[in-house]
Amino acid sequence: MNKTALITGASKRIGRVLAENLAEHGWNVIIHYNFSEAEALEFSKLLKERYPDQGFWTVEANLANLSEVESLIPQLVSEVGEFQLLINNASLFDSGYIKETDHQLFAEQMDVNLRAPFFLMRDFALLCKKGNIINFTDTRITANKSNYAAYSLSKKALWEVTKMAAVEFAPDIRVNAIAPGVTLAPEDKSDEYLWDLAKNIPMRKPVGLEPIIKSLEYILNNSHLTGQLLFADGGENLGQNA
Questions:
Q1: For residue 217, what are the contacts with CB-CB under 8 A and spacing of at least 6?
Q2: Using one digit for the tens of pLDDT, what is the confidence trace for 111-149?
Q3: CB of 181 within 8 A of CB of 201?
Q4: Looking at domain 4-233, does it have CATH number 3.30.70.940?
Q5: For the whole model, what pTM was predicted?
Q6: 233 exposed, middle or buried (CB, 10 Å; 0-12, 13-18, 19+)?
């Protein structure tokens, strides 16, 4: 029987690549989306054609809406059954120094990047009971740059709750995190933008998606790993080159 994973924000970018990798390794995948319905349905259709013996579903939920967050996993368990992997990948990434951050910006970043994963983790533990949780943080959590103040704070807090959950949910559920760095250019930027950002990190090149996939595989294949953070960032968390 194939294992099943729920990936938030799985219709495009990093989430899509995670889903493709899991499907390739025999997993069923629940593709969560908010606004990207067309992409999610097309992606699900593609995976069903490619892996006809596996299950692929789409589910819509606004992670900024607490009632939708709290109904998501109960709905899925009733329709699909208990699943074995939760990946909290979806996030908002909006800039703003502390002095520029208003209540709305702060609330949006916290709601999607921290509150939603928190309650999805809770419901996974209560209803699915066994398996793995992987939270996507950010290499920014090691620094104190405030140009993305609310976003960075939400990701710092997500790492803290990852460790708390790893202790509370053990031994039945392992909880770990992945921190990407210079991985994908924003949708309105070119690859040149990434190379400029990567000039000052130790590896001096964009990380790309492969280290993230390898981190995912390492977590899933290491049955004694919990409460850990894997940096898929080319050493960016260590600080800039002189």
A1: 21, 25
A2: 999 999 999 999 999 999 999 999 999 999 999 999 999
A3: yes
A4: no
A5: 0.94
A6: buried
Report the 3 state secondary structure along the chain. CCCEEEECCCCCHHHHHHHHHHHHCCCEEEEEECCCHHHHHHHHHHHHHHCCCCCEEEEECCCCCHHHHHHHHHHHHHHCCCCCEEEECCCCCCCECHHHCCHHHHHHHHHHHHHHHHHHHHHHHHHCCCEEEEEECCHHHHCCCCCEHHHHHHHHHHHHHHHHHHHHHCCCEEEEEEEECCCCCCCCCCHHHHHHHHCCCCCCCCCCCHHHHHHHHHHHHCCCCCCCEEEECCCHHHCCCC
Strands 173-180, 229-232: pairing is: parallel
Joined tokens for residue 158: 């997500």
CA distance 146 to 129: 37
CA distance 148 to 43: 31
Domain residue ranges in the chain: 4-233
Return all residues near 153 (Cβ < 8 A) that are at least 6 apart: 109, 110
